[in-house]
Amino acid sequence: MIVIVVLFWVTLAAIVWTHLGYPVAAALLARLRPRAVAREDWTPSVTLIVPAHDEEDVIAGRLENLLAQDYPPERLEIVVGSDASTDRTDEIVEEVAGREPRVRLVRCPRGGKLATLNRLHTQGSGDVLAFTDANTRWEPDALRKLVRSLADPEVGYVTGKLVLREADGTNLEALYWRYELWLREQESALGSITGGNGAIYALRRETYIPQPYGQDAALPAFLAGKGLRAVYDPEAIAYEKPARDLEDEFARKARMFRWAWHLLFAGRPTRGAGRLFRFQWFSHRTLRYASGILHLTFLLATTALLLDGTVYVVAWILQLAWLALAGLAWLRVPLPGAGVAYYYLLVTLATIVGAVRYVRGGIPGTWERAEGTR
């Protein structure tokens, strides 16, 4: 029985720590020992890379948006990597390239987003590599704001602020995303962020690391192992639409967590990093990825201890109440807090689904876009 009691308290502590304790601790530490970034308004040569697969509905607008950046034209080139697109994506890019020499199309064999990025990082001549998605839009000064952090020699990676526009349907991702951006700002002030965003990030060409584990979490971690910071600039702003509804968001999260487990199991992401970053990574990433397993273990331990005290009965009732509230949201009952409970439940379940799919089948070879994000 003592083992079950230990599981109860350890899983409860881990859940509370990753979602509440660590964010508060990171914010306090960032105020006690802030680490500034030596930003400068400079304009290094930039190769801007856009991976694309069947993006005929958005690619023309994406290129128009990038060509309108407030950045010296002679210092910017745009490379679109077509991941074996079967629609008019290639044709549209070539039409734009025909009248704008800064744009170039590179056709790639079907391999998925990561394979396309790893292939394209050797393209172009820019000292800085910047990356974005085909369905993203940048503010006119986003690139200028993005690269200024790379003037600091201690910074190896910088990501901007992705603003999620209102979804067409019922997705509540924007609510969670505001919390995540706040935490990212605290981590950046503390030293390094533990995750970036594929919609808007940049790094020096020589610091790009081709690897099989993804971009958003892997690159900041691997660069920390080389003694370089990954930072966040909230003034470099990009926009995207989230998935249309919570069910689509669940599918997207399950794919994302499949890659996250791959990084955890096979990548040794914090190897060579300092103690502070390892502490951040464990608190923010490892425990967050494991939140589904933690919640399931906590529920089972609570159930087994129901006859052993009031605290276990209260914990059990609270968990069932949360599940019931999420269920009401699934039934589309308009009750305050139900949507948030349902969103949290789906994201938590996605961590388990992602782990199971990774163990059973590894990582997917190609990408799938979420509905409603274009």
How would you describe this structure to a colleague?
With 374 residues, the chain is of the alpha/beta class. The chain has a domain of 200 residues: Spore Coat Polysaccharide Biosynthesis Protein SpsA, Chain A. It is built from 12 helices and 8 strands. Helix 2 links the parallel strand 1 and strand 2. Helix 1 crosses helix 10. The longest helix is centred in the first third of the chain and has 31 residues.
Provide key terms for this protein.
374 residues; Spore Coat Polysaccharide Biosynthesis Protein SpsA, Chain A; eight-stranded mixed β-sheet
Brief write-up:
The protein is built from 12 helices and 8 strands. By secondary structure, it is of the alpha/beta class.
